[in-house]
Amino acid sequence: MKRLLILILVSAALWSGYWLYGASASKSAFVAWFEERRAEGWAADYADLEVRGFPNRFDTTFTDPALADPGTGWAWNAPFFQLLALSYKPNHVIAIWPETQRIATPQGRFDMTQAEMQASVVLWPSTALALDRVRLVADTVQVTASDGSTTAASALRLAAERLGADGQAATTAPEAGPTRYRIALSAEGFAPDSALRQRIDPTDRLPRTLDALRADVTLGFDRPWDRSSVEEARPQPQLISLRLAEARWGELELLAAGDLEIDAEGEASGRITVKARNWREILAMARASGELPDGVADTLEQGLSLLAGRNDGIDIPLDFRRGLIWIGPLPVMDSPLFRLR
Question: What is the secondary structure of 32-57 as a DSSP string?
Fold first, then answer.
């Protein structure tokens, strides 16, 4: 019994020492990271940094964190931010956001509120901390722009995982070079802001919220997403393989699938096929919004009518080439550039 008691006391002392060492190392690493960002010209601050959770967790809480990268124009701040990890599995982290946060981008400043927002993040156990998989959930989300316009959703769900060479979930360490991730995204009760809604639906015929908004897509990048993606530069997209995207808004329904290749300048080439139900209504709203000039809309309507006949549904191939999006021989709009700042 005495030996057992000694063994228990020694084990407890060793575990306590491990936890204290791990907590101190974790805190020092975060402090050093903020100092490195400031040395690179970032604004990187927090009011307090604590690591708790003895004996089985490393729970790190940042109070009033604020980050701003002048090189990209992105910034973020919040009342607090938490990273929770089991002490024996520190590469699996639970991230927890507060009910309010602020995000600034080159396009404007946004205040974000949510009843709950957290993510389960698994990183590959190495100094690069490459992303292996993530699951994020957020409920009762509202994003308000600096002009007062508001976008909302009752729930957001996102799941992403790194893929191996066989197209399945990766089981080996990430390598330098092209890397693919499969991403599933869904939004429930999605309500566009009033400006976008007015532009899309100037006659106010559609309901306030979309019935469905979801996507299943594989994205290929020129290198893995890891700590250097934040500290140095973002990986750039090389491939968009859209298995299925769906949007249902009242009687309007759009389904899309296809593949795009992205060159070094961010220009896309390939085809996305859109299946549209009640396409005449969609075209009428695009015409009324001014997104399609009358001449282009008339030509499209004539061509699509020949393809669809009397059917309400039609498959529309959108070809991306030479910086434009084409329907058959007709260029309908500029193609976006797929570059991450």
Answer: HHHHHHHHTT-EEE-SEEEEE-TTTE
271-306: buried (b, 16+ CB within 10 Å) or exposed (e) per residue? ebebebbbbebbbbbbbbeeebeeebbebbbeebee
Please give the structure tokens belonging to residue 127: 């100094």
Contacts of 134 (CB under 8 A, 6+ apart): 119, 120, 121, 122, 158, 159, 160, 161
**What is the C-alpha R_g of the chain?**
24
Tens digit of each residue's pLDDT (9 = 90 or more) over 234-272: 999 999 999 999 999 887 888 999 999 999 999 999 999
**52 Cβ partners below 8 Å, 6+ apart?**
23, 59, 61
Contact assessment for residue 265 and residue 307, using Cβ atoms and an 8 Å cutoff: no
Q: Find the angle CA(96)-CA(132)-CA(180) to the nearest 5 degrees.
A: 125
Per-residue pLDDT of 325-341, as tens digits, reads 998 888 888 999 999 98
Q: Give the pairing type, strands 252-262 and 237-249.
A: antiparallel
